[in-house]
Amino acid sequence: MRRKWLWLLKNTLNRVTIRAARSGHGPFSLVRHVGRKSGKTYETPIMVARVPEGFIAELTYGEDVNWYRNIVAAGRCELLVDGQWHQVSAIEPYPSAAGRDAFGYPAKLVLQVLQRHEFRLLRTG
């Protein structure tokens, strides 16, 4: 069931959110990553929050999604935020409370109500 849900997102909603991320408007950013098996370049829309060390991503679907597994394997990726590309040099676990706080209100409240607790720091610079 989960695989079908992810396929549906990839082939419908992701197409719209990729366009939104490219435009630099709205809440979406774009992570560009290289497939760990295929070597092919992919772009996946995600939502991030800016912090001094880089950006915080919430792992809505957990660690078993391809974009996350690909950047962990590569140790890097590129991130398009507000129309500007950033080089991500590392990905690290991030404390749950600090991760929710990084998103500010009302997103912080939504993340708390949904009991989201898997956050990652996408370190830049």
UniProtKB/TrEMBL annotation:
Classification via Pfam families: F420H2_quin_red
InterPro entries: AS_cat/multimer_dom_body (IPR024074), F420H2_quin_Rdtase (IPR004378), Split_barrel_FMN-bd (IPR012349)
Positions of transmembrane segments: none
Any one Gene Ontology molecular-function term assigned to this protein's record: argininosuccinate synthase activity
Domain of life, source organism: Bacteria
Protein name, entry field: Nitroreductase family deazaflavin-dependent oxidoreductase
UniProt source species: Nocardioides luteus
